[in-house]
Amino acid sequence: MEMFNYYLKLSLRNLSRNRLFFSLMITTLAVGVGVFLANIAIIKSMSADPLPHKSDKVFNISLNIWPNANPSPELLPIMRYDDAMHILKNEVATHTMVHYQTQVYTREVGAASVTSYQAKVRATTPGFFPLTSAPFAYGGVWQGDHAKQVVIGDSLNQQIFGGGNSVGKLIEVDGKPLEIVGVLKPWHLKPLFYHPGHRQAFSATDDLFAPIETALDNEWAINVQSLSTERINSVSDNRGKNAFFIHAFVQLDSQAQINEMKNYLENYSQMRKDGGDFLRETDNRLLDVNQWLELNKVVDKQMLAFGLATSLFLAVCIFNASSLLLARYHSARFETGLRRAVGARISDIFYQGLVESTLVGIFCAILALVFGWLFLQLSLSLFPKLENTSDIDGSLIAIGIAIALATSFISMIYPLLKACHAQLSTTLK
Amino acid sequence: MLKMNNISRIYRSDTIQTHALRDFSLEVKSGEFVAVTGPSGSGKSTFLNVAGLLDGFDQGSYELDGVNIKGLNDDQLSRLRNEKIGFIFQNYNLIPDFNLFDNIDMPLRYRGFDAKERKRRITNALEQVGLASRANYLPSQLSGGQQQRVAIARALAGEPKILLADEPTGNLDSLMARQVMELLYKLNEQGSTIIMVTHDPDQARAVGRNVQVIDGQITDHSIYAPVGNNAPIEVNAGISA
């Protein structure tokens, strides 16, 4: 311990005596680590598992149901109302949900203000909540397929009602009053696995959740993404027609359930084929959450390329810092030689260097976290689609500190070894 | 104390081999004061580097205080340098931003002494060289002679078996050189074994024994009167090891 204190004292003296040099070195490393850290933060968020406890048990269902025979390697991730309703009737899955997204205008019923708030709506089924592990703060899910009831998210609850338990209150949705039966806690799902397309993978969770039948009954159709082969007059007109707009997910907790669900889908496909539908070869897919996110290219390939570039940049920073240190050790070889001459072992010099590199690494880590945060904000401002994706959380702070210490050590090791093995007789006179 | 037999040290580059020491044999007994003289490039500094374990050798054998040096690893050599050898360099080699106390403290740290023991030794060493009141001074606040005395104190603090001095007065004016030499005489009288490389023939004559080195070999070996007396009492010219 006494020698550690001595080495620490020597290291602090060296840092103080060579402020400019070490500032340059620490800044060089911190910039490299900071950029790397910011990039890791983005990639980590992009590649995060939104349902870590059951992502391998929740599956998106894709049916190869294009109404023509043209082969296409791409799956169609949306299905018709009738397909969705058939899937919903299955008795295989632990939870099943189908959904589409739209937008509405909302306000408190009877509010003095005429201001309405735009709200993202998830028109879905009760299975949505247990399947996505949506956290309820108050109340629960609606009762009945056509219930005039909704569940609202925390931010809409704050916006309209100022927060608190709003269960039982009425909310005006596109001019019609609906009862609030549930309020969610603040809920961040990254990525938004149940709707990763249309640049929504990193959007906030929805403001309002309503029965899909109620949404159709009320013609909630703003921004509904659909494909169809026949004329559709309104969103409720989608029922029973070749209009593709609904996503379906199931939770299957065992291999037996998975096999059963596959059979269920095969039987359904065959039934439709027998009826003259589904002309293409049967190619139903069950993709778990991570496979589904990968199919949707949630992790931007450009970000991965940028990640590689930042890794190389970090390597260049280490190389530069190492070159700087080599020059410094060269200029300080007299002191190293003197210490060796009066009895310091190579290991003593090495440990002293290790303490110094740790000290440099600590300063570097602090600065790297600051740079990392700044670079992250810069990245988010330059690429708006990354907004809400990333933050430097506790684990990234730990990673940043570890990388800073490691880079400091790596950059110091070669110059240190050179210094340790310098010929003593040539350094002293 | 020091016994070298047929030591050879060869420096090699891509095209040239330089025999810095060849068949160099010397024995120094405890309490002796030996001056090593010779022209520049004669090998006297190489001898001192080998003697001080700062450099290795290619052939021969070397015993220091009964320890055979050949085959020792770096840790063992470092320990011997720390415990048995005190270095006094021409350039003093003090760390400029350490005060005198910390400069002398350095070798004692590697010896593993506790703080109390280090302080005792540092105080004694500074007293021996007459600088006890300046422990907190920086080297730059001292004259050249005083700095060399600090270097001597650093060498003494470890209570070494042998002091190796490489032209200790080479950077000093005559007055300061005399003060440093008087200090070395005094230390020798108190029992220290000293080997000193010097260019100064007067200094060489003033010590008990003079070894002249030319082309890496001992060419002259003279025994003089006791320290301080310039008159030679015995001369063995041309003794070649």
Describe, in plain words, how this protein is organized in 3D:
The complex is a heterodimer of chains A (429) and B (241). Chain A folds into two domains: 2-47 and 300-427, no CATH class; 58-295, no CATH class. Chain A has 13 helices and twelve strands. Chain A has helices at 2-17, 19-46, 81-88, 128-132, 154-161, 212-217, 255-274, 289-295, 301-331, 333-341, 346-382, 394-420, 424-427; strands at 58-62, 95-108, 117-124, 136-139, 149-152, 170-173, 176-184, 208-211, 227-228, 243-244, 247-251, 285-288. In chain A, strands 2-3-8-5-7-6 form a six-stranded mixed beta barrel. In chain A, a hairpin with a 2-residue loop joins strand 6 (170-173) and strand 7 (176-184). Chain A starts with a helix and ends with a helix. Chain B has a single domain (2-237), classed as P-loop containing nucleotide triphosphate hydrolases (Rossmann fold, 3-Layer(aba) Sandwich), CATH 3.40.50.300. The model of chain B is unreliable at 228-241 (pLDDT under 50). By secondary structure, chain B is α/β, with parallel strands linked by helices. Chain B has helices spanning 44-51, 74-84, 100-111, 115-128, 144-157, 174-189, 201-206, and strands at residues 2-12, 17-28, 33-37, 59-64, 67-68, 85-88, 162-166, 193-197, 209-214, 217-224, 232-237. In chain B, the strands form two sheets. A seven-stranded mixed beta sheet of chain B has the order 6-7-8-3-9-10-11, sandwiched between helices. Chain B has a four-stranded antiparallel beta sheet with strand order 2-1-4-5, covered by helices on one side. Chain B contains seven helices and eleven strands. In chain B, helix 3 runs parallel beside helix 5 (144-157) and helix 5 (144-157) packs parallel to helix 6 (174-189). Chain B is 34% helix and 29% strand. The longest helix of chain B has 16 residues, at 174-189. The interface between A and B is medium-sized, with 23 and 30 residues.
